[in-house]
Give the backbone structure.
Amino acid sequence: MNSRASHPEIVVIGAGLCGLAAAAGLTDAGHSVRVIEARDEPGGRIRSVVDARTGDYLADLGPTWVWPVYQPVVARWIDALDLSTFDQFIDGDSILDYGPDSEPELHQLPSQLGNVRLVGGPQAMIDALVSRLPGPVLASAQVTGISVAKDGLSLQLSDSGMADVKCDRVVVAIPPRIALNTIHWEPELPGAVARALTVMSTWMAPQAKAVALYKEPFWRGRGLSGRILSQVGPLVDAHDHSGPEGTPAALFGFVGWPPQTRAAADPHLEDQIRSQLVRCFGADSPEPTSIHVADWAQDPLVASPRDLTEPMSHPRVSPDILREPYANGRVLFASAETAVRSPGLIEGALDAAERVVAGVAKVATG
């Protein structure tokens, strides 16, 4: 560990799942670590609907599923963080929605094999990781500049009233394009590194998710799974999103319209989702108690302009250069997009975090 007490040995930029897992792993390895987050709370692309009165978790507006049977990294972390899972509810018919001029059809559809949900949602991972850190996350502080010198690094923050943060190493645990577009690098990044950051699309950037909360999962009593597949939307693919015992009751869905169409529909998007749910479940179906939408395309900490011009797709495995330490081991890039396993997904975030921890250990001993 660095003997200087004036600053942390390692700063992690980004308190999403990857950044927090990396920080926890580095802390466990004996390093002095500080996490800096541009948002006002940890979580990154893990965003939850919470009860306004109690603060209790209700639903996910970011990633939802994990596949422990196929994802060994996820399985390890679930055990390490003492978390529990439950099966995605799939019993019953699914609804095929062809639009306002056609009656919806009921069909039995195949389900995804092995997908489960975390009790407490992915938010439970965030909370567990934050609790393992030696100090609080420095929130509402966006890193706008990184200066690399022989004797260490200097990080400039968005709030001009805050002093620069000094450290020996930095883990950049934010999406590659955001790291390139929002941080001023001194000296400039090598061309090969900048190009690699540029080509990596940001998972979820063009997408939007919606959650409809209900008093009870009425669809289950009607022999329905809660699954909706629609040719017209707004929700093109929806699923039961209720808790382990059906409480809280909820549906979640992907808003399949392109970002520009969603923006034009706002602020009436929630009304159009309500109309679609009535169309699919019938005029006698209960009204949602509330609807929540997260449009990731409108989040400048997730979506870059280039992300919004490309088709939605899972990130491919990133160029090797993004998994190599830069600046004599002082700078390491990490986010779910840099993973070799399940890039973009929860497992990708954890895989990238494990790689960073191993990389720091290799530099320290090499």
